[in-house]
Design a protein that fits this description.
The protein contains 7 helices and 3 strands, in the order H-H-H-E-H-H-E-E-H-H. By secondary structure, it is an alpha+beta fold. The protein has one domain (25-108): Arc Repressor Mutant, subunit A (Orthogonal Bundle). Keywords: DNA-binding, Transcription, Transcription regulation.
């Protein structure tokens, strides 16, 4: 989210939250990271159907928004791990409520 987008949305906190987690794979990435630190390949295997390009983009956006940490180890081959920041971890209750709401809505269809 750019600074300009943040200023525009600053009048609606819910819209800011939705903007940060909006993305085809972001909630699923968060779900995987709630269980602990993961490497890129672990995330890609867990999220069947996501391309390397899209996963990279979604991870960069989450990192830019302060939701995840990206740790690069000086090894060959390079080792990169992704983990939640405190801000990212604070999204867990929100995602649980969204999950429960989705289950309740599924029952109505």
């Amino acid at each position: 989210m750019t600074q300009q987008e943040s200023k525009i949305l600053s009048k609606c906190p819910a819209e800011i939250a939705l903007k940060i987690i909006n993305g085809r794979w972001k909630l699923l990435i968060l779900k995987e990271l709630f269980s602990g630190t993961k490497r890129f390949n672990e995330l890609q295997r867990a999220l069947s159907g996501v391309t390397q390009k899209v996963l990279t983009q979604q991870l960069r956006e989450l990192e830019s928004d302060g939701i995840i940490n990206r740790t690069v180890y000086p090894e060959i081959p390079p080792k990169v791990e992704y983990s939640l920041t405190a801000l990212g971890d604070s999204l867990k209750p929100l995602t649980e409520v969204m999950h429960d709401w989705g289950i309740n809505q599924t029952k109505q269809f």
